[in-house]
UniProtKB/TrEMBL annotation:
Residue intervals of the Acyl-CoA oxidase C-alpha1 domain: 281-442
Stored Pfam families: ACOX, ACOX_C_alpha1, Acyl-CoA_ox_N
Domain of life: Eukaryota
Residue numbers binding FAD: 141, 180
Required cofactor(s): FAD
Keyword terms of this UniProt record: FAD, Fatty acid metabolism, Flavoprotein, Lipid metabolism, Oxidoreductase, Peroxisome
Family: Belongs to the acyl-CoA oxidase family.
Domain Acyl-coenzyme A oxidase N-terminal, chain residue ranges per copy: 21-135
Catalytic site positions: 427 (proton acceptor)
InterPro entries assigned to the protein according to its UniProt record, in alphabetical order: ACOX_C_alpha1 (IPR055060), Acyl-CoA_ox_N (IPR029320), Acyl-CoA_Oxase/DH_mid-dom_sf (IPR046373), Acyl-CoA_oxidase (IPR012258), Acyl-CoA_oxidase_C (IPR002655), AcylCo_DH-like_C (IPR036250), AcylCoA_DH/ox_N_sf (IPR037069), AcylCoA_DH/oxidase_NM_dom_sf (IPR009100)
Gene Ontology biological-process entries: fatty acid beta-oxidation using acyl-CoA oxidase; long-chain fatty acid metabolic process
Gene that produces this protein: LOC112291573
Name by which UniProt lists this protein: Acyl-coenzyme A oxidase
Organism, as annotated: Physcomitrium patens (Spreading-leaved earth moss)
SUPFAM superfamilies for this protein: Acyl-CoA dehydrogenase C-terminal domain-like, Acyl-CoA dehydrogenase NM domain-like
Length: 667
């Protein structure tokens, strides 16, 4: 989408492209229909002044939040007035580009009711939620516990005399703390609490608790609720009202417990269904799978800014060429930037696959087939962890790649980082999630002689072969073979998992020993996830990629795989599967890939199709007119509202006019 002012400082770059840009845009959008919807919604948002992002980083919290409420309300009105479909509405909210209460309402409250509510409960709550007659949040985390869900303290005690649950926060640490949308916007909370019937604790279950009046939005009696305070960075996640919530013996009807997985009867009997209790974590699995595509989008925004700016920015020169060099010409710049570009493409491909994996598991669950649940949990948890960590670090790297100007909010990068970095923590702390993957790998290995592993763990079925055979690469171009690459990632992951499993098996099985080995367990989980990412990127390429873009995608795929191999060379070498020389050969191949990316770099980021409005960056503008806009932008700075700064009379003038020698001055 070109929306520059006609001057194209990057025209020369664009003329070098060697692939079908339009086909790439459609591929990255996920298909022609998705592309058309994206384009339409991006323009709708960009052309509506209510959605303007101008000045967001300068607003005080109250104004920022009020403005965010205004945008969310306007988005909803636009959706209704234009009769937008659910997919269009989702896209529109995506382009509004501000974390807000509707993310949790649509992204977690509704999915949790769908996954855990009975049909009757869905009929009661979903119509209200779909028309936003109620606003819901997902209130799981407490002051004292987030990762350890089984450790939550809020109680829901059944009172058979009134057919109600009594919701209570018995300690300070039981205060619900963090839920997005809870602080100021929600009327209802999906509360995770310990279910108690007849003095027996049945563990964590989900309850719908009304928290604010539908008449005047005041908190209901005995409910204490508010916002937890300002968060990291300007703008960023501060548009969200992450909240606290306490109950003082608040009564809710028995039917407000979501009862698909377990029921409490009128006379107080607790009945579990035969479905796994982990289905209660379904909303988290749903969001984790979506986070992979989201990571690609965030990373692609940072990379678009850094690539375009690196093509505009010139520093130094050399005796072989006239003038100064574009910084994108420097190998070091390429070696930091191009792997991130390739990673954004990799996550897009893997994100598409995650969607199909999730659709498959949902279909199975409907047929009461729970067999793939552990693998899907490991996959969603692991890929959420890796992709968010890499993306957060990648955004920060892009900021550094833009030198000093990257540090200005006008670059768009500080705010992008502030909005994104909590993704490493929310929806599961990234280390906790990798430990879940490690547990899955250990379990899979312990059963490998009896149960053939399937799906993303299938390679562990070849553990013997992968543990004995070594890499056969003898020349650089031997690496240009996806089977060779895949085997390297499989062997490294299988060997790392087997090594730590063996060490644990030789021990006493104590928790202390397990703890001692957690760093290696996390490394082995990371290796497994990197294998999934590389293998699924390859697999996606091999299934019907249009001719006009296949070559470029192959280059990006090799770039991604080689950079992963080199960044983790220590692990690959330690497992003994590859030699130092083979790593050196891969490094040479990676440089050849950089040469192939270089003429296409700007077009490859254009293919992400981010509008200038969505990017919000003077450095990443489509037209490359960076300096004019940085300069113009300085005049919007509030300190420049007056020529002589407010504070001069009180604080600057006395300093300038005292004309006294400072006592310590040596002059
Ligand atoms: C579609 C959306 C698109 C994009 C998204 C974009 C933006 C996001 C929008 C909003 C996001 C904003 C905010 C985020 C909101 C939140 O943060 S909500 C709170 C999230 N909280 C967490 O993630 C907590 C993390 N903790 C846990 O998940 C669990 O407590 C645990 C897994 C760490 C441990 O659970 P336990 O019950 O104690 O389990 P265990 O005893 O360790 O394990 C028991 C067995 O269960 C398996 N298991 C665990 N989780 C799952 C699961 N989700 N599904 C299936 N199976 C699971 C576990 O592996 C064990 O298996 P065994 O075979 O070993 O018995
Ligand atoms: C912006 C934001 C939005 C959020 N939105 C919501 C929401 O809408 N609803 C909701 O319910 N929650 C929400 N949360 C809470 C979030 O899900 C939790 O913060 C997250 O799950 C991490 O839990 P914790 O804070 O308890 O971290 P902790 O578990 O206390 O982690 C602290 C450190 O301890 C380490 N650690 C903990 N246990 C172990 C272990 N067993 N082994 C090794 N290391 C360990 C962790 O790796 C981490 O380094 C949100 C959080 C943020 C930041």
């Amino acid at each position: 989408m070109q929306d520059g002012n006609g001057l194209d400082h990057l025209a020369g770059e664009r003329a070098m492209a060697q692939f079908d840009l339009q086909a790439m845009k459609v591929y990255l959008a996920g298909g022609q229909r998705e592309y058309e919807i994206s384009t339409k919604m991006a323009q709708l948002v960009a052309n509506d002044p209510v959605f303007s992002k101008e000045d967001r980083v300068r607003l005080a919290r109250k104004d920022l939040y009020k403005n965010s409420l205004r945008k969310a309300g306007h988005a909803w009105k636009t959706i209704l007035e234009k009769g937008l479909s659910e997919v269009e509405g989702l896209k529109l909210r995506h382009f509004v580009d501000e974390p807000t209460y509707t993310d949790l309402h649509w992204g977690m409250f509704i999915p949790a009711i769908k996954g855990q509510g009975t049909e009757e409960q869905q009929h009661k709550w979903l119509p209200l939620a779909y028309k936003m007659a109620i606003i819901g949040c997902y209130a799981q985390t407490e002051l004292g516990h987030g990762s350890n869900v089984q450790g939550l303290e809020t109680t829901a005690t059944f009172d058979p005399t009134t057919d109600e649950f009594i919701m209570h926060s018995p300690t300070v640490t039981s205060t619900k703390w963090w839920p997005g949308g809870l602080g100021k916007a929600s009327t209802h909370a999906l509360v995770y609490a310990r279910l108690i019937t007849d003095k027996k604790d049945h563990g964590i279950h989900a309850f719908i608790a009304p928290i604010r009046s539908l008449e005047d939005h005041t908190p209901l009696p005995n409910v204490t609720v508010g916002d937890i305070g300002v968060k990291f960075g300007n703008g960023g996640y501060n548009t969200m009202d992450n909240g606290f919530l306490r109950f003082d013996h608040v009564r809710i009807p028995r039917e407000n417990m979501l009862m698909r997985l377990a029921t409490v009867t009128k006379d107080g009997k607790y009945v579990r269904s035969n479905k796994p209790r982990q289905l209660g974590y379904g909303a988290m699995v749903f969001v984790r799978q979506g986070i992979v595509i989201d990571a690609s989008i965030y990373l692609s925004r940072a990379v678009t800014i850094a690539v375009r700016y690196s093509a505009v920015r010139r520093q130094f020169g050399n005796k072989d060429e006239p003038g100064e060099l574009q910084v994108i010409q420097y190998r070091t710049q390429q070696s930091r930037l191009f792997p991130l570009l390739a990673t954004a493409y990799a996550y897009r491909a893997v994100g598409f696959w995650m969607k199909s994996l999730y659709a498959d598991v949902m279909k199975r669950l409907n047929d009461n087939d729970f067999s793939t649940l552990p693998e899907v949990h490991a996959c969603t948890a692991g890929l959420k962890s890796i992709t968010t960590s890499v993306t957060a670090d990648g955004i920060e790297e892009c900021r550094k790649l833009c030198g000093g100007h990257g540090f200005l909010c006008a670059s768009g990068l500080p705010e992008l980082y502030a909005a994104y970095v909590p993704a490493c923590t929310y929806e599961g702390d990234n280390t906790i999630l990798l430990l879940q993957v490690a547990r899955f790998l250990l379990k899979t290995l312990s059963q490998v002689s009896k149960v053939r592993p399937v799906g993303t763990a299938a390679y562990l079925g070849n553990i013997k072969q992968l543990s004995t055979q070594n890499c056969k690469v003898s020349q650089g171009h031997d690496w240009l073979n996806t089977s060779v690459l895949l085997e390297a990632f499989e062997a490294r992951s299988a060997r790392q998992a087997a090594a730590v499993a063996l060490r644990l098996a030789k021990g006493s099985g104590s928790e202390a020993e397990f703890q001692e080995n957690t760093p290696e367990l996390v490394e082995s989980a990371r290796a497994h996830c990197q294998l999934i990412l590389v293998s699924k990127f390859i697999e996606q390429l091999q299934t019907g990629t249009p001719e006009g873009i296949r070559k470029q995608l192959e280059v990006l795929c090799y770039t991604y795989a080689f950079s992963q191999l080199i960044d983790n060379a220590g692990d690959f070498l330690a497992t003994g599967y590859v030699t130092g020389n083979q790593i050196a050969l891969a490094k040479e191949e990676l440089k050849h890939m950089f040469d192939k990316i270089r003429p296409n770099a700007v077009a490859l980021v254009d293919a992400f199709d981010h509008t200038d409005d969505y990017l919000g960056s003077a450095l990443g503008r489509y037209d490359g007119d960076v300096y004019t806009h940085l300069y113009k932008g300085a005049f919007k700075e509030s300190l420049n509202d007056t020529v002589v700064v407010d504070g001069y009379e009180e604080y600057l003038k006395p300093v300038l006019t005292q004309n006294l020698w400072a006592p310590h001055s040596k002059l």
